[in-house]
Write a structure and sequence with these properties.
This protein has 312 residues and is of the alpha/beta class. It has one domain: Alpha-Beta Barrel (TIM Barrel), CATH 3.20.20.150. Helix content is 38%, strand content 12%. The chain has 9 helices and 8 strands. Strands 1-2-3-4-5-6-7-8 form an 8-stranded parallel barrel, surrounded by 6 helices. The two termini are 40 Å apart. Bound molecules: manganese (II) ion (MN). Manganese (II) ion (MN) binds next to loops. Manganese (II) ion binds next to loops.
């Protein structure tokens, strides 16, 4: 059938797409998506891989700060125009959440070493389980162990403040610490136990929140104005959107509180193994093989959430 010119709607209003302010917090990727160790080649693979997938930042673990060459790392970051964050969790042998003063001292020394490495790299965020060993405790934390953790972290926060570094305490599920399992616990620990230093924030991880919180929204709101770092990970720590974690709910809540700190993708598979971290995190399953595909998919997923939640 032919359309006569008269039937073409020539008076239709022009289609206007209103583009409002895009919500653009920096997006990061955990180094273990690409590499389990940090030789120059491994570091370059990870930094380049994260950059090519679209990320602004890479999170470099410092479980053993001596294994990370800060000068090499700083140069590679500059070469690829990438920013960094650093993270670690303590071990039971060097744990500030302990009653054993020698064990606390070993933990304190490790944290200060990590802080020096972070400073030498030029990192602005030191995050993760800074307050505890990463692993299953056989009982709840004691008041003395808790006080030791708070005391050391106050000292670390002071030193970090002089260097312009923000600390973010990552609360994790009950099988990975006995001290901070929820956003509410963590906010209270910073405010009451630590005396509310201005450069200490809550680090919220969707994987842990999914296990311990009533909802992502409640978790985000419980952080108040002290949410400083976010990990996005699925319930099985694989591809985003494939699991049962309420990631859309988390992004909506983050937008509603105008969160603009880093949002970092964290994923683990037996395909990439870290001697330090994989066994601690119980990474037994092979959830992916292709780091580049996983990272590109994660970046696209996160970027889509930012656009969906931008205000028009
Ligand atoms: Mn995490």
């Amino acid at each position: 059938m032919w359309l006569t010119p008269g039937r073409i709607p020539t008076t239709a209003p022009p289609r206007v797409v209103k583009v409002g302010a895009l919500w653009q917090p920096p997006l990061g990727c955990h180094a273990l998506v690409f590499s389990g160790s940090w030789s120059r080649d491994d570091a370059e693979t990870a930094i380049k891989g994260a950059k090519e997938a679209g990320f602004d930042m890479i999170e470099i673990p410092l479980l053993d700060p001596r294994k990370v060459d800060p000068t090499m790392t700083k140069h590679l970051l500059e070469e690829h125009h990438m920013r960094s964050s650093n993270s670690l969790g303590l071990s039971f042998n060097a744990d500030i959440n302990s009653e054993d003063s020698e064990c606390v001292e070993r933990g304190r020394r490790l944290l200060f070493e990590a802080l020096s490495t972070a400073e030498a790299i030029g990192t602005r965020y030191l995050c993760g389980v800074l307050y505890s060993a990463l692993g299953k405790y056989s009982g709840p934390s004691s008041p003395r162990a808790r006080a030791n953790a708070a005391r050391v972290l106050r000292e670390l926060a002071d030193a970090a403040s002089d260097k312009g570094i923000t600390l973010a305490l990552e609360y994790v599920n009950r099988y990975e610490t006995n001290l901070l399992n929820t956003a509410r616990d963590t906010r209270a620990f910073i405010a009451e136990d630590m005396g509310d230093p201005k450069n200490v924030f809550v680090h919220l991880d969707s994987y842990h929140a999914h296990i311990e919180e009533n909802s992502m929204r409640e978790a985000v709101l419980a952080c108040g104005d002290r949410l400083g770092y976010v990990h996005i990970g699925e319930c099985h720590r694989g591809y985003l959107g494939q699991g049962s974690c309420d990631l859309p709910g988390l992004f909506r809540a983050l937008r509603d509180v105008d969160y603009n700190g880093p949002i970092t993708f964290e994923s683990f598979s037996s395909a990439v193994v870290s001697d330090d971290l994989s066994n601690t995190l119980a990474v037994w399953r092979n959830l992916w093989d292709d780091s580049d595909d996983l990272a590109s998919h994660a970046h696209a997923y996160m970027q889509a959430q930012l656009i969906l939640n931008s205000k028009h």
